[in-house]
Amino acid sequence: MPIFKYRGRDLEGKEILGSIDATSEKAVASVLSNQRIIPVEIVETDNESSGFSFSFNKHRVTIDEQVMLCRQLNSLLKAGVPTVQAINGLALSSANPALSDSLFKVEQALEMGTPLANALKQQPKVYGPLFVAMIHVGENTGRLDEAFQKLASYLELERSTRKKVKQATRYPKMVVGAITAAMVVINIVVVPQFAQLFAKFGSELPLPTKILMATSDLFVNWWWAMLLVIGGAAFAFIQYLDTIEGRLKWDEQLMKMPIIGPIFEKITLGRFSRTFAMTYKAGLPILQSLTVVSRAVSNSYVEKAIMSMRSGIERGDSFTRTSTAAGLFSPLVLQMINVGEQTGSLDSLLDEVADFYEQEVDYDLSKLSEAIQPILLVFMGGMVLMLALGVFLPMWDMFALIQK
User: Fold this and answer.
1) Could you please report the per-residue DSSP string of 59-76?
2) Host domain of residue 16
3) What is the Cα–Cα distance from 122 to 109, expressed in whole angstroms?
4) 61 within 8 A of 102, measured Cβ to Cβ
5) Backbone φ and ψ of 5, nearest 5°
6) How many Å apart are CA 364 and CA 161, to the nearest integer?
7) Is residue 397 part of a domain?
8) pLDDT at residue 306 above 50?
9) In a domain, 239, yes or no
10) Are residues 126 and 36 in the same domain?
11) What's the whole-number average pLDDT of the chain?
């Protein structure tokens, strides 16, 4: 579909510039008219320009903006405002260009007769699989406002979890940053001064001093090589994560790491329980719910386990049996799932499972600083000990020689 750039004015006479995917100039004019924009100039552009084309989007849609969008759409639709008009109003009032642009594109698709879920699906960077699935269910059941309300509640819980993780890791990040800065300053500024003094001394230096001077020489004379090695390693790691096998291995190891691994595991399983309960309660078939949820957990290892559960259910196994075979849940959680399946209240029981995991995550995050603090203290103590031995051992030898 060609891209048309336009220049127009709103009802207040303010100039508006933008671009629209459309079939013809007439379609662009129709879209602008619905947006209360008077077109002044419409020009078709070549979207396959020659050479290299880079697009840096300085804005992204945050989870806070997604929550606000869902809340606003829930209120507007509940009040009886047509979907196209509601989305157009939010697109015009949005302060985020990325969100505004995505809403305008959704509006264009709706005006061409595309269902809302399919229109949202065309913007995967803004609206994920769970978002699209919930809107699809809301459209089919005639309860679109409730779908936006459920999405807002889920996104608020997700936002709360992210904030708790950031708050719990703030202290370790500050300590590690301070230690790194101190090591750089010591090796670049402090140690070279002592190295000149020790060179004049002329005697055999202790092993800690040799290590300290070698490290300082690496920072001072080979800093460019260090940057190349670190940059190359980071690039290779990112490329490895872009592969299916690499992402799967990393996500699996992430959940097995000491201290932080169990926290990530509980966050992921809590997200699975909450999203599955929400989609299942909304009326999505169990196989489709598992497919949607597997993409929403943001963990390839868990996604693979969920898809194995889906395959087991397709073969005729029960949800409890496939959950046990996946090896993700504790015996207590499996017992709750079994009760929920037998009583026909799997969605409500999984909601309780999500609450259980969230309580566990809250407790683990509250103890995270206490768990990491001894490791940081040992690391700092080792660094200070190496610095002290490297500096003071040869100085003691110098004083002993002077006394003699």
Assistant:
1) ----HHHHHHHHHHHHHH
2) 3-45
3) 9
4) yes
5) -90, 140
6) 12
7) no
8) yes
9) no
10) no
11) 81
